[in-house]
Write a structure and sequence with these properties.
Blueprint: E1 5-13, H1 18-35, E2 41-46, E3 52-59, H2 62-71, H3 73-78, E4 83-92, H4 97-106, E5 112-116
Length: about 130
């Protein structure tokens, strides 16, 4: 059964770089909203201390995620200025070779990576009010 492709990534933020992380995520969210019309959802949350950020992306398929990686490539290169480490990554759907390579490039020892390739069912509402 085919379903959406979902990526969830959590990142530890370097000491003193919390505002840089907030600015970077605002910029990426704007970039995604402007340049990636196929993305269903792109959201991020900071923990209570502002030291960890989690991004949740919902794509219609893995090709949309690959396109996303190309759009944000420049931001990924500069992300290590404020990211201490990747804490965890979760992939819901079959990851492409491109995503697998990017995840391997950025994952540090101890990063928890969880893959859930089989969609069992469900739905997405276009809007919730």
């Amino acid at each position: 059964m085919s379903g959406p492709f979902i990526y969830v990534g959590s990142y530890a933020i370097k000491d003193g770089k919390e505002q840089d992380a907030r600015k970077a995520f605002r910029e990426v969210a704007d970039l995604v909203e402007t340049n990636e019309p196929r993305v269903i959802a792109f959201n991020y949350w900071f923990d209570a201390l502002g030291r960890t950020v989690t991004a949740v992306q919902v794509h219609p398929d893995p090709a949309s995620m690959d396109f996303h990686l190309g759009v944000v490539a420049q931001h990924l290169d500069g992300a290590w200025d404020w990211i201490e480490s990747t804490v965890s990554e979760q992939v819901y759907g079959e990851p492409s070779a491109m995503l697998t390579n990017v995840m391997a490039q950025f994952a540090a020892p101890g990063t928890t990576v969880s893959l859930f390739p089989e969609h069992g069912g469900g739905f997405i509402r276009a809007s919730v009010r």
